Amino acid sequence: MRKVAVGIAVACGVAAAAAAAVVVHRRMKKAGKWVKAMEMVKDFEEKCATPLSRLRQVSDAMIVEMQAGLASEGGSKLKMLISYVDSLPTGKEKGLFYALDLGGTNFRVLRLVLGGKGRGIINQQFVEVSIPTSLMTGSSSDELFDFIVAKLAKFVAQEGPDFKPSPCRQRELGFTFSFPVVQTSIASGTLLKWTKGFSINETVGRDVVEELTKAMERHGLDMRVSAMVNDAVGTLAGGRYANNDVVAAVILGTGSNAAYVERADAILKWHGPLPRSGEMVSCSSLIPISEHSIASTSFLWKNRVANGISLKVINMEWGNFKSAHLPLSEYDLELDAESLNPGDQIFEKVMSGMYLGEIVRRVLSWMAKEAAFFGDTVPPKLKVPFILGTPAISAMHQDTSPDLKVVASHIKDIFEITNTSLKIRRVIVQICSIVATRGARLSAAGILSILRNMGCDTITEGEERRTAIAMDGGLYEHYTEYRKCLVNCLNELLGKEVFESVVLELSNDGSGIGAAILAASHSKYIGCYD
Ligand code: BGC
């Protein structure tokens, strides 16, 4: 009997020891995985680092590309497209105008009634429509434009009698088309390529105004396109309508881009007639007196009169900027390689709204795979591209609750991961912060490049200059931490004194409003509004 008892006791002891060993082993394994996960985060953070020295290198490289893009067609990854906006709005525009703002998964139809000198916008109405994904890729050009025009026609059909154009004119439309387009006039332009998840091959190489006009004819819609602009150019025009100090515009939304006012004689690739002089001013009416060079970033602008200088609005297409100085991680490279446009839009892919959430998802997905960050198996939803949108990372990044419950609920709702510990949620916030910080600081470096190119990055003693940049896009508008980080970084880059002369002005729906105003300033019917 005693022997049996001893045997059982020994057996129990062995089993307990074995169980304890399993627990210890599991803990060690878990600790090892956690260490591995933390190493991955640290490595990612280092690869995304944007110290000021690096941002200055990025800015130098961008200025070189800007100059190359202005010198010759195809001379640079930065297309530096010349817009045909030769005169920015003056505030005297008057009458009924429409805009169609197409640039992402949603488009807007907008109607403005402009009151003329000193009266501004006296009536404004819009509708927003989302585009079915099936029409963004794989469909035909006609199908996409038919869908858009049907909504535009419906909007017009529902208008009351107050919004009928004068008998002497057709309805006029400003078309904001936020993709790279080479223009040959204010109301025509050939699509170079799609970006931001659109991919309809047959539209590439076609005049998109013609595509839109043909669809309007198919729908019997009596309307003409008076101006076609990129959203960055539209935002610049809309910004200038509201504030005369606006000399540039930046879009931080689904995609990203910038436009600014450039001296026509600095655009070496421009062989057409120079636009009317002195109608647009750059850097608050200052006139450049010497050529820009990188060595002397200050390209001096003097005299407060804009006599004799012709200026043009340049659509930079800065989303396509690429440089060895950009801080890129393996996750960015993987995202690019698997995107619809590999090798293109690299700047955009590290800082715009379409991609920030996707970068975070890729990091988490690798951590799940390599370091069992969410347990022994990789949660299936974590493998779905673009399932994590930037609004979600903005909400998680800005979660101020002590137990990070916003993070917990997003991770549960989006990835169906229910059991995240506080420790894990903190790491998720950290990853969101790394991605957003890099994007915001790179945007600041882009803005610095424009200011340097225009000579607005220095200020002489006693000079009272204001340089305003119109900002549009949901990322800038809604992601507060991103916006704050961008502004702080610009302050660091410019120094307090110059920074105080620069105003970043949120221009809500500036691109649509700007296009309608440009339709007014480029109207065929000037003089027949009343
Ligand atoms: C397009 C630009 C556009 C920007 C912001 C980019 O993907 O190439 O033309 O201005 O997105 O919408």
TrEMBL record:
GO aspect biological process, one term: glycolytic process
E.C. numbers: 2.7.1.-
UniProt pathway: Carbohydrate degradation; glycolysis; D-glyceraldehyde 3-phosphate and glycerone phosphate from D-glucose: step 1/4; Carbohydrate metabolism; hexose metabolism
An annotated Gene Ontology molecular function: glucokinase activity
Hexokinase C-terminal domain span: 248-520
PROSITE patterns referenced in this protein's UniProt entry, alphabetically: HEXOKINASE_2
Alphabetical keyword list: ATP-binding, Glycolysis, Kinase, Nucleotide-binding, Transferase
GO cellular component, one term: cytosol
Keyword ATP-binding: yes
EC class of the enzyme, as a word: transferase
Family to which this protein belongs: Belongs to the hexokinase family.
Protein name, per record: Phosphotransferase
